[in-house]
Amino acid sequence: MEDIRIETFTLGPLETNAYLVMDAEGAKAFVIDPGAGPKRLLERIEALGVKVEAIVLTHAHFDHIAGVEEVRRACHCPVYVHDLEADWLTDPRKNGSARWPDVTPPVAAEPAEHALEDGMSLKLIGREFRVIHTPGHSPGSVSLLHGSHLFGGDVLFRMSVGRTDLPGGRTEDLEHSIRNKLYKLPPETRVYPGHGPQTTIGFEMTHNPYVPALPQS
């Protein structure tokens, strides 16, 4: 039996995946990347009667943070983000919302209460989640690992990868993050991406056309 439960909510104009991660008993939870219009997510939290302990951000682009304040106020919980993007929460220019007025109004949130660091063990819902710094799509991108579950944000998608042409993005960093960090994980590791369907590390090592696994020497 799995020791965590995961529900996915696709939110906002860019169809961003928000995740409600719960303990097996459904008593405690945390939210990953609450995008715009999180009403369905909040209704589900209320229906379950689950206690939300935190909001964890894989990165601070507007489509991943637009629902932060609404969820934080409703659930009375702190926010975690990598220090490299701490000021993106409060600045629509940095989180990208000021760049696309036809897609979104300016997005800003109050500062995060806690910083994420590479290698740290984050204890939530009575479980340990390892923080892996995976820059490339953005400088403060992180992935969150628990057992065979990886919440990867916009780093690795099913047969695709995150874009690197936004401020702070860098193709070389993205490839390094995927090959030297994510592809080192067991092939059965399930990837819960920021957009689109789930995948596995093994599938991407074999089929991803953008960052194929290098041959073993």
TrEMBL record:
GO molecular function: hydrolase activity; metal ion binding
Assigned keywords, A-Z: Hydrolase, Metal-binding, Zinc
Keyword Transferase: no
CC cofactor: Zn(2+)
SUPFAM superfamilies: Metallo-hydrolase/oxidoreductase
Reactions catalysed, as given in the entry: 3',5'-cyclic CMP + H2O = CMP + H(+); 3',5'-cyclic UMP + H2O = UMP + H(+)
Residues in Metallo-beta-lactamase domain copies: 15-195
Role, per record: Counteracts the endogenous Pycsar antiviral defense system. Phosphodiesterase that enables metal-dependent hydrolysis of host cyclic nucleotide Pycsar defense signals such as cCMP and cUMP.
Protein name in the entry: Zn-dependent hydrolase, glyoxylase
Species assigned in the record: Thermobacillus composti (strain DSM 18247 / JCM 13945 / KWC4)
Biological classification of the source: Bacteria, Bacillati, Bacillota, Bacilli, Bacillales
